[in-house]
Amino acid sequence: MIQFLLNQELRQEAHLDPNMTVLNYLRQHLKKTGTKEGCASGDCGACSVVLAEVDGDKLKYSSINSCLTFVSALHGKQLITVEDLKHQGKLHTTQQAMADCHGSQCGFCTPGFVMSLFALQKSHKENQDGQTDNAEIQEALAGNLCRCTGYRPIIEAAKQTIQSAEDDQFDTSEQDTIARLKTLSPTDPAVLTGNGREVYLPTTIDQVSELLNNHPNAKLLAGGTDLALEVTQFNRAIESLIYLGNVSALNKIEDSSDSKEIKIGAATPLSDCYSVLATYFPDFGALLHRFASLQIRNQGTLGGNIGNASPIGDSPPLLIALGASIVLRSHKGTRTLLLEDFFIDYKKTALANNEFIETIVIPKPNTQSTFKAYKVSKRLDDDISAVCGAFNIELSNNKVSTAILAFGGMAAIPKRATSAEASLLGKEWRSETIESACKALATDFSPLSDFRASHQYRTLVSQNLLRKYFIESSIEQSAEQSTHSSAYDALAYDATRVTSYV
């Protein structure tokens, strides 16, 4: 049985199909039709709802795509929908802002926008100057699409939402809600069954290992933003699931000052990974801002992005370039594997039977190497990479001493460009060296042509990303050394060589 709060109503469900999404639970089971289905793939945001969880002495509000969230993810949380915002006959300030700013025309997408605005209002932090942060607004709304308004009035509504924020019914009942959620906090394993299917909800790693050993055909479910597509897009039932969201050991980040490594639990949502990754690796943080939408990042996990073994997953090339490893666990124990050795072939990994990813281990940066990452896609936000490149190069006396060039979208797996790396080693850090490496890089991969990009485009872009890395790192070096002529040469090189859009 799972337990959760639907606004302030306690819901206890023991017999629901584990393949049921939160969207269908609301619309079909409860007849709450305010939440809309637009795409059933997490692209449009019309289905956005908000989950509240206890975070210390406060509630943490997160917008999610209900079309990609199975009902098991509600266990121990509070679910808030658009029907819950109006209170005592008065519109919520987010709803009023949309009306005042004419942010709705046909209205189909409006409930999703309202819920994203609600989550934004709850999590908003003002700039030091007290002004509204446009980047924060754009990030909060990047996962919501509208075909009518052109977005300007919706952005105006977002600004009004923040400026007109006032205590609402959720604020006044926050401590009571926290107390109730603490009583619902999962401490023991649970099971939800329906239509001959089951989902197991363990609370410890040992329970996960035992369940996977006893149910070897079960699918591991963390954020579910990719797995749920099996149900919503391909109409394939998943007979047995093991939900990892209540396993605290898989939902934590270890970053002690005396450690040379960052350890991230495999079921940690990407939005929770942002702070630590951006602190040590700013380019990783910048890429996470472009990783799908905020709704997806609030659900999708770092371990899931690795485990689904997509050749165009955004995080694996970056992690490979950083020398990351993963801890794999089964009922027999654990083993550690370099991430670059985890991927074998398209959608094929080194996971043994009954094994799962427990932890991602990332070495902290040293001052000698320069790490940069780039994502090339048709849209800036909420899009899949055509090419993703990550570079980690160390120089000694202006010669390349170590080089890792990792790419996604160039092969059946995330992969290093070993020939290009070899051509760099021991060579002086100059444009001729980069051009030789670019020629070698063309032999490292034979990318396919698809609707995102052609073979030729991917090859050229991968080379241009290496050139871009050279230009940027050269400019940074020249800035540190105050040798402006080098920076000027690099800029001139940029104008003639770099033609890709990043």
What Rg do the Cα atoms give? 24 Å
Helix content estimate: 25-40%
Mean pLDDT: 92
H/I helix tally: 18
Unreliable residue stretches: 482-502
Largest sheet: 5 strands, mixed
Give the terminus-to-terminus CA distance: 47 Å
Extended strand count: 20
Q: What does the overall shape look like?
A: globular
| Spatial arrangement of strands, main beta sheet | 2-1-5-3-4
Strand content: 15-25%
**Which structural category fits the helices and strands?**
alpha+beta
Could you outline the blueprint of secondary structure elements for this entry?
Blueprint: E1 2-6, E2 9-13, H1 22-29, E3 48-55, E4 58-65, E5 78-80, H2 93-100, H3 110-123, H4 134-141, H5 152-163, H6 169-172, H7 174-184, E6 190-194, E7 197-201, H8 205-214, E8 219-221, H9 229-232, E9 240-243, E10 253-254, E11 261-265, H10 270-280, H11 282-289, H12 294-299, H13 302-307, H14 315-321, E12 325-330, E13 333-338, E14 343-345, E15 348-349, E16 356-363, E17 369-376, E18 387-396, E19 399-408, E20 415-416, H15 418-424, H16 431-444, H17 455-481, H18 484-497
Parallel strand pairs: 1-5, 7-9, 8-9
Antiparallel strand pairs: 1-2, 3-4, 3-5, 6-7, 10-11, 11-16, 12-13, 12-16, 14-15, 17-18, 18-19, 19-20
Helix pairs in contact: 2-5, 3-4, 3-5, 10-11, 15-16, 16-17, 17-18
